[in-house]
């Protein structure tokens, strides 16, 4: 119905242009103006019809679901209550992996299980190529999966949520949203900070002179429930 209305508008514009050209003595300038007017009406009608180019892509490989497990140092914190014991965050995730909770997903998808943010092996003498910085880089982990897997359906993050390395995950999360790929997260660990002392900042000088004292300012944050005199 809409296409017929568009054809009718274009035909009406052509008929009016032809009649106007006839009434003005079939002059060349009038013909040029009527042709321009007809082309403008035709292009406007074509635009209002919102034409679309549809290309159907048939994928032969099944969609993929990536399960990423956080292997950073913060996952060794013992603050997860399991039955009557307090275990580490890594131990809790390992217990979930042993249950193979992703089995129902394998019915219609290919499940990929992997770890990220693993600290470098300090026992290896040749450390060439290992990560120089230790921390949790969520942006790089999500970015590498998005780059390597073409038919990605969803991503599940098993982490404590402590992002402390690399760029902000907001940028890569926006790319996932634009691609229609959901990212789910299962967060482990306590909601509040565990009672402990944390060294927040150390400003060490770049160089020092032999025999001279060096002042190294630092900041220690207390998360203890009471004040401690030192």
Describe this structure in words.
- Keywords: Membrane, Transmembrane, Transmembrane helix.
- The chain is an alpha/beta fold and 230 residues long.
- It has 2 domains: 2-48; 64-122 and 129-187, Rossmann fold (3-Layer(aba) Sandwich).
- Helix content is 32%, strand content 20%.
- It is built from 5 helices and 8 strands.
- The protein has helices at residues 2-23, 28-48, 89-98, 138-148, 169-178, and strands at 64-70, 78-82, 85-88, 110-116, 152-159, 183-187, 197-202, 218-222.
- A 4-stranded parallel beta sheet has the order 4-1-5-6, with helices on both faces. It has a two-stranded antiparallel ribbon with strand order 2-3. Strands 7-8 form a two-stranded antiparallel sheet.
- Helix 5 links the parallel strand 5 (152-159) and strand 6.
- Helix 1 runs antiparallel to helix 2 and helix 4 (138-148) packs parallel to helix 5.
Strand order of the largest sheet: 4-1-5-6
Q: Strand share of the residues? A: 15-25%
Q: What would you give as the CATH superfamily of the largest domain?
A: von Willebrand factor, type A domain
The first-to-last residue Cα distance is 84 Å
Strand segment count: 8
Q: How many domains in all? A: 2
CATH architecture assignment name of the largest domain? 3-Layer(aba) Sandwich
Short description:
Keywords: Membrane, Transmembrane, Transmembrane helix. By secondary structure, this protein is α/β, with parallel strands linked by helices.
Question: Which helices and strands, and how do they pair?
Answer:
Layout: H1 2-23, H2 28-48, E1 64-70, E2 78-82, E3 85-88, H3 89-98, E4 110-116, H4 138-148, E5 152-159, H5 169-178, E6 183-187, E7 197-202, E8 218-222
Helix pairs in contact: 1-2, 4-5
């Amino acid at each position: 119905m809409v296409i017929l209305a568009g054809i009718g508008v274009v035909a009406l514009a052509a008929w009016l242009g032809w009649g106007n050209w006839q009434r003005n003595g079939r002059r060349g300038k009038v013909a040029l103006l009527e042709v321009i007017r007809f082309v403008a009406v035709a292009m406007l009608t074509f635009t209002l019809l919102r034409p679309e180019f549809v290309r159907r892509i048939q994928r032969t490989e099944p969609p993929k679901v990536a399960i990423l497990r956080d292997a950073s140092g913060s996952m060794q914190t013992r603050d997860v209550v399991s039955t009557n014991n307090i275990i580490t965050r890594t131990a809790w995730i390992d217990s979930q992996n042993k249950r193979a909770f992703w089995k129902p997903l394998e019915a219609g998808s290919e499940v990929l299980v992997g770890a990220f943010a693993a600290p470098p092996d300090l026992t290896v003498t040749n450390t060439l190529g290992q990560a120089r910085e230790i921390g949790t880089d969520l942006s790089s982990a999500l970015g590498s999966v998005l780059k390597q897997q073409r038919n990605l359906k969803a991503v599940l993050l098993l982490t404590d949520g402590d992002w402390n390395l690399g760029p902000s995950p907001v940028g890569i999360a926006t790319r996932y949203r634009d691609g229609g790929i959901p990212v789910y997260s299962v967060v482990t660990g306590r909601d509040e900070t565990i009672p402990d002392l944390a060294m927040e900042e150390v400003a060490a000088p770049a160089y020092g002179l032999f025999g001279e004292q060096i002042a190294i300012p630092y900041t220690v944050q207390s998360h203890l429930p009471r004040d401690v005199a030192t």
